[in-house]
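Sample entry follows:

_____
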Amino acid sequence: MVVLRRRARRVQGADEKSGVTLDDPLDAAQERRVRAVLALGGVPQADLPDGVQQVRLRLLEREASGAEAPRDVSAWAAVVASNLAMDWHRARRRQERIGERLASLRPAEYAVRDAGEDTKVLSLAVAQGLDELPDAQRQILVLRFYADLPVRGIAEELGIPEGTVKSRLHSAVRALRARLHEDEVV
């Protein structure tokens, strides 16, 4: 593990003494795609660089373990980014539950009111709608429409049947569309 950490650090920059740089395992287009998948998966802007580094690290770990290189690094990186976004949401939900428990212990006069302002900005409504989708549906939707992966590619990368991808995609689109109509955005 120490070797991977050293190598991951060297990948980030040049060895200043020798002037040698190692190739980044992600090219610029792949990095942009990873950032987009993370952002559309609901990861805050401030956490995007860490998410990109996690994808790089997983690629390096895969290489170091001797595993076969992914056929399509870009698709593999998008799926890893999507999984990271799902992990981020799970962690956020755990934190929210803890916060709710703590809030229930506070006296009522200190309760925080929700600032539930309705907005008609489509991008915000879509982002909120994505946040409300189940993890599996959000992942499929982001991979299909934002990472632009074909159904077959999503199925191969996630290791699930194409029919499952299509079913989740259909359910996600239907739920998102209903949410947008419910909020009178569209």
